[in-house]
Amino acid sequence: MRPSPWGPWSTYHERGDQGRLLMDPVGLQLGNKNLWSCLVRLLTKDPEWLNAKMKFFLPNTDLDSRNETLDPEQRVILQLNKLHVQGSDTWQSFIHCVCMQLEVPLDLEVLLLSTFGCDDGFTSQLGAEGKRQPESQLHHGLKRPHQSCGSSPRRKQCKKQQLELAKKYLQLLRTSAQQRYRSRIPGSGQPHAFHQVYVPPILRRATASLDTPEGAIMGDLKVEDGTDVSISDLFNTRVNKGPRVTVLLGKAGMGKTTLAHRLCQKWAEGHLDCFQALFLFEFRQLNLITRFLTPSELLFDLYLSPESDHDAVFQYLEKNADQVLLIFDGLDEALQPMGPDGPGPVLTLFSDLCHGTLLPGCRVMATSRPGKLPACLPAEAAMVHMLGFDGPRVEEYVNHFFSAQPSREGALVELQTNGRLRSLCAVPALCQVACLCLHHLLPDHAPGQSVALLPTRTQLYMQMVLALSPPGHLPTTSLLDLGEVALRGLETGKVIFYAKDITPPLIAFGATHSLLTSFCIRTGPGHQQTGYAFTHLSLQEFLAALHLMASPKVNKDTLTQYVTLHSRWVQRTKARLCLSDHLPTFLAGLASCTCRPFLSHLAQDNEDCVGAKQAAVVQVLKKLATRKLTGPKVVELCHCVDETQEPELASLTAQSLPYQLPFHNFPLTCTDLATLTNILEHREAPIHLDFDGCPLEPHCPEALVGCGQIENLSFKSRKCGDAFAEALSKSLPTMGRLQMLGLAGSKITARGISHLVKALPLCPQLEEVSFRDNQLSDQVVLNIVEVLPHLPRLRKLDLSSNSICVSTLLCLARVAVTCPTVRTLQAREADLIFLLSPPTEKTAELQRAPDLQESDGQRKGAQSRSLTLRLQKCQLQVHDVEALIALLQEGPHLEEVDLSGNQLEDEGCRLMAEAASQLHIARKLDLSDNGLSVAGVHCVLRAVSACWTLAELHISLQHKTVVFMFAQEPEEQKGPQERTAFLDSLMLQMPSKLPLSSRRMRLTHCGLQAKHLEQLCKALGGSCHLGHLHLDFSGNALGDEGAAQLAQLLPGLGALQSLNLSENGLSLDAVLGLAQCFSTLQWLFHLDISFESQHILLRGDKTGRDTWATGSLPDFPAAAEFLGFRQRCIPRSLCLSECPLEPPSLTRLCATLKDCPGPLELQLSCEFLSDQSLETLLDCLPQLPQLSLLQLSQTGLSLKSPFLLANTLSLCPRVKKVDLRSLHHATLHFRSNEEEEGVCCGRFTGCSLSQEHVESLCWLLSKCKDLSQVDLSANLLGDSGLRCLLECLPQVPISGLLDLSHNSVSQESALYLVETLPSCPRVREASVNLGSEQSFRIHFSGEDQAGKTLRLSECSFRPEHVSRLATGLSQSLQLTELTLTQCCLGWKQLAILLSLVGRPAGLFSLRDSTRHTEKLSFPRLEACALGFKKRKKERKKVLEDTELRTKIN
Questions:
Q1: Before 1159, cis peptide (omega within 30)?
Q2: 3-class state of residue 515 by DSSP
Q3: Least-confidence region, from 540-544, 701-705, 1241-1245, 1362-1366
Q4: Which of 299, 408, 853, 1219 is 20 to 30 Å from 379 at the Cα level?
């Protein structure tokens, strides 16, 4: 101990006032008069120290000013009495503090600790006087509160008395607050400013209110940047209705609790005069309440009770609730799981106060860490974010802390020269710790050495512990024991401790070194006790980390379980925020080699154990560094790695980070970004940082200074402003790899943009810049685009969602025209984007040399560029178009111009159409949705009639579409001689190789009527000579009148490529009348009509080779001859579908087609064609000599149709083929007039023909001269039908094939075929397969055939069929070859068959399946068969494939 300035303690006995001291009753109870006298005399020498300890051990005790009139020794005795009656724990802790902090002689210290510092000394006091808690424990001047101040019956009293009682209570409330915040006494070795300095942190009000989805709400992450919110601005007293709630959000260490107490102090000093009453509650204490409270119980039982008549005072507070402020500190600590009966009592009361159910109109302020907030907060609650200190605030705090001290300048220099320490000081709590450490270190260290000892958060706290400890003496045991208490509290979620939780020596140690703070805990009327807590939660975490790293009770396996990464994202299932957020960070910091001597000293010089624990922590961090982590965990990992100061670990972490590193929806501080920058310094590859929805402090970008690894940097929806932009502008030039910069969703004004505009030219490597949704003014936007020439590698500039006017837009268009690197300007409603193409290396070099004149190559490059201009929905009008046209005429070639969605109307569209040919538009001009009318359509058509490059014009007034498509400009016209030679050479080429051009005019859904056609055709007349014209009038209202009028006007339009008249309301007569266009329009080759769907299309030749594109080719004789040849060869086609084909309609159609040049193909389709309609159609066939094809597709026909079509073969000699399939598809092929009459064929497949139809069909076919083929397959003839057909077969003049396959026949039909062969001399070959193939075909020849061939396969003959088969073969003298394949006839049946066949001399071949061939005479056949029979078993398989030939002589 330090030597006493008063000499030996025995000298205290010689004082003259010793007798008076011995008369003190407490001194008598202690039983040691001399010791008590010495203690009183010792404390009389330092009354300020004793007052400080009274506030610590008795936080609710009022140091009454009336005691100041007492004798100093009597005042000390009174204070000692108050301490002694608190109990043994408080008294012993006080005695330990006396011995630790005061200059006490060694012999007196021994007596004090042995007599008063143990339980035996305390229990020697007399009687029960010490056990009774006196009235002095309560607030001075107050009676003990009754059990329920709200339950007593209301007493009638006059209003004046109620007002007097209320005023007395309000004065008592203010006096109590003044005494609580009276000047605080600094601890041993601490500067006076340690307790006095207060610098308000940055406060930012959120831009939107809370949202409350799914029972939990989140603090709004959109933070507004602008004027700082002062303390008085936190409360808007002008709002008098509804709940008025303010939530103060800030991370740990930002000063939320300090601000809450600052408000109380300001109110006590009379600054917040808008409030008559102010109450401060801490949720960490309210959580101890387990019963439901009324508002009066909350205010009077738990805070301060009136002297009398609680009801009257509460009534006054209710009437004046708008002047009452309730502050609840630590709302995040009140988050508890919802029980079956709803929230707990504390949250229920808090919710009723917030929503105005209780004490309506009062103001409520709550502080909380960012994260999950209870659902009881109203949606309209104001959110204010605490963002810590910026540079000026740090400097202000340091100035106040070191005021009037010689070390002030040195501390400022140290902070200014060390960026790491400056970034740590952005957290107010760390700033206080840093100042305390500098105050301790500066006097004994050279400049620069002090800061070297404070590189990390962990070492800040380590130096703070050393600074608070006595010089040269580190209380290792006490530190570790206090760390064990801290760890136990973190594990159990405990931040409040009682005297039973901490031993008196530890309480004294914590009080002496300012590690513990004390406060009074009230849980009800008359129930209060002293509670203890660490001065800050982070200090509790640091001491817990010290215990884990240095205590021999903790092994390294247990230690590593605490090295985890906590996500800052809120989990719905997480009841409350974690109390050990910084514990892994402190463990990582203590793993630094710099901390090893400190830890070894704490661990009793057990350096090996400390080293093993440090290595274990580093190893865990290495494993975490290689994992895929979310954004919050990446930040936590960076903090841990940075604290270790291990370059190898930092390099591993930096290289393991992904190329795209997103940070979404969690708060970040300047310290976080500074730590991330420190880690990225160890990375070689570039990285993309995306901050989306993360609240950032305005000065955060300063932490990124010099971070050369950032390639893409994006800040989205940050609602940052000028301060943020200014800080960012300082960092941008230092990022050498930065290619993309995004700053979206902020509120930057011209002042902030001016800083960025100055910084952007210093970043020539930038390729993309985005200022989306920043509410930039017109002038600010123009200022931004001025930097385009100074960013040679820029590819994209995004200025969307910034609400600019039309005049500014035209200025931007001028920039796009004049800036040689701009390729696209796209503006659509909120979108505004510049797309650029960096110049070539040569051009870039020339741009870097402005003194050089522009070279020819450079000018040619500028002229060769093409510009795309999209100004959509920008409210452009006619006068704007005039200015735009004048601007574009001076500019480069245009790839595309899109002015859709504006207000150009007819005149503006006409001006743009006229200028189209002069603007050199290469691809597209879009004037859609500009209010174009039908009258304007005519003007637009006339305006573009002379535009050679126009490829397509699509106008649809209904869909508001006006689109011009352009082709490349044609080459310069060749001379007359060259062109003539060129055209003559085309005649030698194949027609498919002729080059042509065409254009499309689509006037769809424009409401065009017949009255508009004449004017339209005049306007279109100028476009016809420019090339093949595709004209589309679909979706209009031409009607029958318009169709008739158009048919007359079409010849005047020249050669069209196609004409679409769909959806024009044409009747059937009008549709059929269009067929006459075949005779009036030489270019028309195809007419496609779908009547029900109103699809009507007139087309020329598919290859467009009917006329020359320029219209001049027919003037040459060779060309005219070529075109005439083509017109004769290419068939014209009329396709009519979905149309009711009745006899009158068919008659008119055929009459209309009578004069159509041929050849002609007619394709008809309807749901069902009646027999009468079919007869009418077939009767008209002779009137159409040019008809080459008649097709009825997907048309239902009756059973009579096969006979009508078969009859056509004889009635119309030009028909060469009739093909009917399934009664739904019929095709008639005709001979041309030049062809001679020849054979014909008929196919009637799948027509359900049966026996009853055979005779009629054969009679009709018999009238034909020559039938090359008749196909009756897939019908229903059966055996009887086929028998009938074979009987009629001699009457039918078939010269080719008769196909009867798939008619469900059996062996009977095959046998009858054998029996019929003798009566059909023209049959050449017949084949029957009754297996899966189901084929039945008979081949005829023109004349009688001498030899016949019969092939029977898979007929499954039975033994009884052998005799019939033999009889038939005997009668067929012309049959020379019979092939039996798998007919189920064995050698025995074959032998019987051959024995029964009676044949004259000649050659007869019989084939059965065999692999070899033998020629045997008839007498030897039987012997051969018998020989095979004997070897049947061993040659069974061979017999099945054996072929036997027999020659009969």
A1: yes
A2: coil
A3: 1362-1366
A4: 299
Short-list 530, 533, 502, CA closest to 516: 533
Out of 254-263, 327-336, 787-796, least confident range: 327-336
User: What is the bridge-based pairing of β-strands 740-744 and 1267-1271?
Assistant: unpaired
1248: how many CB neighbours lie within 10 A of its CB?
Answer: 12
Scan for tokens 């960096």, then name that residue. 838
Residues 710-740 have pLDDT tens digits of 999 999 866 678 888 999 999 999 999 999 9
Q: What is the C-alpha to C-alpha distance for residues 915 and 909, in angstroms, rounded to an integer?
A: 10
Residue the block writes with tokens 């119980």? 297
Q: Give the Cα-Cα-Cα angle 219, 224, 227 (nearest 5 degrees).
A: 130
Is residue 244 within 8 A of residue 379, CB to CB? The reply is: no
Question: In angstroms, rounded to a whole number, what is the distance separating the alpha carbons of residues 169 and 142?
Answer: 11
Query: What does the pLDDT read at residue 238?
Result: 55
177, two tokens: 């607050």
CA 670 to chain CA centroid, nearest Å: 28
Axis crossing angle, helix 1010-1024 with helix 1039-1049, rounded to the nearest 10: 30
The count of other CB atoms within 10 Å of the CB of residue 1306 is: 13
Degrees to nearest 5, angle at CA 1144 with 1138 and 1148: 85
Q: Scanning the structure block, which residue is given the tokens 């027919």?
A: 1114
CB 230 within 8 A of CB 205: no
CA distance 271 to 313: 23
pTM above 0.90, yes or no: no
- In b/e form, how buried is each residue of 1186-1197, taking b as 16+ CB within 10 angstroms? bbbbbbbeebeb
Separation CA 625–CA 636 (nearest Å): 11
Q: Residue 740: what pLDDT? A: 95
Q: Is 82 helix (H, G, I), strand (E, B) or coil?
A: helix
The answer to whether residues 1020 and 1047 touch, using CB atoms and an 8 Å cutoff, is no
pLDDT in tens, 1036-1071: 999 999 999 998 888 888 888 889 999 999 999 999
- Is 1311 in a helix, a strand, or coil? helix
Residue 587's pLDDT band, with cuts at 50, 70 and 90, is very high
Residue 712's DSSP bridge partners are 688, 740
Phi/psi-derived region of residue 931, left when phi > 0, alpha when psi is between -120 and 50, beta in every other case: left
Angle, CA 477 vertex, CA 475 and CA 481 arms, to 5°? 120
| CA distance from start to end of the chain | 151
pLDDT tens-digit readout, 539-582: 999 999 999 999 999 998 999 999 998 776 654 434 445 667 78
